[in-house]
Amino acid sequence: MKEYARKFYKSTAWRKCRNSYFNYRHGLCERCIGPGKIVHHKKYITPENMDDPAITLSFSNLELLCQNCHNREHHERNSSVVEGLMFDSNGDLIQTGGK
Ligand SMILES: [Zn+2]
Ligand SMILES: [Zn+2]
Q1: Strands 62-65 and 85-87: what pairing?
Q2: CA 84 → CA 39, 46, 53, distances in Å?
């Protein structure tokens, strides 16, 4: 997780937006109708657009995904993502597996 993104994901504006989107989607993953966990940005946040609420806080740029669908999304788009990396409920990258 880049520092600029970390700051964004900790913001009150994002937490509120994330919660209302989660409720709006009834907590269901939009791809497999499993229990949704992560609100994903279809257009990824970059330092250039992170101050643009039309990107960061707009429902049209959000997608509620379960852990599996979210991992798949990032695996497909970014082949450098290593197996065993997961995302927590804030969309932060966390390390799993191993000891
Ligand atoms: Zn899913
Ligand atoms: Zn994502």
Answers
A1: unpaired
A2: 20, 24, 31
Q: For residue 70, which ligand has an atom nearest its CA?
A: 2
Residue 44 dihedral angles phi and psi, to the nearest 5°: -60, 150
Give the tens place of pLDDT for each residue, 13-72.
Answer: 999 999 999 999 999 999 999 999 999 999 999 999 999 999 999 999 999 999 999 999
Shortest CA distance to 34 belongs to which of 59, 62, 69, 75? 69
| Ligand 1 center from residue 29 Cα (angstroms) | 5
For ligand 2, the distance from its centroid to the CA atom of residue 53, given in whole angstroms, is 17
Q: How many A from CA of 49 to the centre of ligand 1?
A: 27
- Measured in Å, residue 40 CA sits from the centre of ligand 2 at 4
Q: How far apart are the C-alpha atoms of 30 and 48, rounded to whole Å? A: 27
